[in-house]
């Protein structure tokens, strides 16, 4: 496959030295075009980005329209409002055709900058590129200033900025982190010059060459995997699809997080894998040589009376080592539990159905909820009856700020009584496990409004729909 474009995230995906990078993952996602499922954290990040974009476009006049996560960074966001220039600016071959393309090995790069800020009028603040980040733990996952300076994403953005404006000699890149658990925000900013960007872009170009080589390979089994990235965070989305040889399967097993090999003090604190390892270590350790029973005699022993030569004593039989039971192999030595008493025999079940089951309602039985007549407040009860009184009342409401002026005009022009009413009624009836039926009624009455008649029509329509579904509106009462 020939790559037609790349992005900073694609390069990071192919880089085995990045946190989530794996060449095979790049092959699955960008060569085979397999889409990883979008998880809840990605949806949350998208919602936060959209709320900040809306907030900046309206110059902060939307009040608390920021996402609750973004409220922790409100002070940082407000500082950018006077200088904002481009919000969610996209660059690449399919966007601004007049701008020069950022390429590596002939492959154009595309991206989307969250916020681009020009220098201030005093020359104190340089060009700045801001990227919003959401994370569950800032202290654990946020980049340091050194990591931000080496970030493929920020180097790519800076290379595009310096390419499009030859007069820029210094720019600033900032990651603004917002924490999902608890209100917390932090800004990590780094300054770049042209020399630093050129050095960083050289490293990006070397990774682009690796991406080209991966894309040229049709057999994914010939692409070297990074097994250390299989279980990072929520795990690789293509982990179950990735083929493994016998060697890579063992390596993958070794990358799984396990407890330390030291044997805990209590057997039940050990994982099953640690118990197997402890057994294997014990089996491979040679048994120590047996020590002599007592010290050797010193000096000449006293002569004994001669006697018939006794038969040589047979050597003591070697006692075979006790073979541990399967229970001891798994959980270690435990104190034997008290014998379990024999279960008490249950009483034989009587013939027939249990008591009260005959009166149990069927799945198709339901009780029609009480339909209350709608309540209306006539216009003459809201405002005084005389035109002068109405005008005085509405004028006071407008002056006190309760209603705007256009609403007051509508109130003065409203009829003195209601001549049309629309009633909507809906109920959901369970008909079994994980099953239900929805009944909806909408009736309209014009002219003289009779609330009792309107209620009767709603009830009749609900009963008619219930009969169509073969539902019983009058279930038997339980005894």
Which descriptors would you attach to this protein?
two-stranded antiparallel sheet; Lambda Exonuclease, Chain A; 15 helices; single chain; 33% helix; 479 residues; alpha+beta
Topology record:
Layout: H1 8-14, H2 23-31, H3 40-57, H4 74-80, E1 86-91, E2 103-104, E3 107-108, E4 111-117, E5 127-135, H5 138-141, H6 145-149, H7 152-164, E6 170-179, E7 185-193, H8 194-216, H9 246-255, H10 272-284, H11 326-331, H12 379-382, H13 387-399, H14 405-413, E8 420-432, E9 435-446, H15 451-468
Parallel strand pairs: 5-6
Antiparallel strand pairs: 1-4, 2-3, 4-5, 6-7, 8-9
Give a brief description.
The protein is of the alpha+beta class.
Describe the structure.
This protein has 479 residues and is of the alpha+beta class. Among the domains are: 38-200, Lambda Exonuclease, Chain A, CATH 3.90.320; 363-378 and 417-479. The chain is 33% helix and 15% strand. It is built from 15 helices and 9 strands. The strands form 3 sheets. The protein has a 5-stranded mixed sheet with strand order 1-4-5-6-7. Helix 1 (8-14) packs across helix 2 and helix 7 crosses helix 8 (194-216). The longest helix has 23 residues, at 194-216. The protein is flat, with a radius of gyration of 40 Å. The two termini are 75 Å apart. Mean pLDDT is 75; it is low at 258-268, 293-301, 325-335 and 374-380.
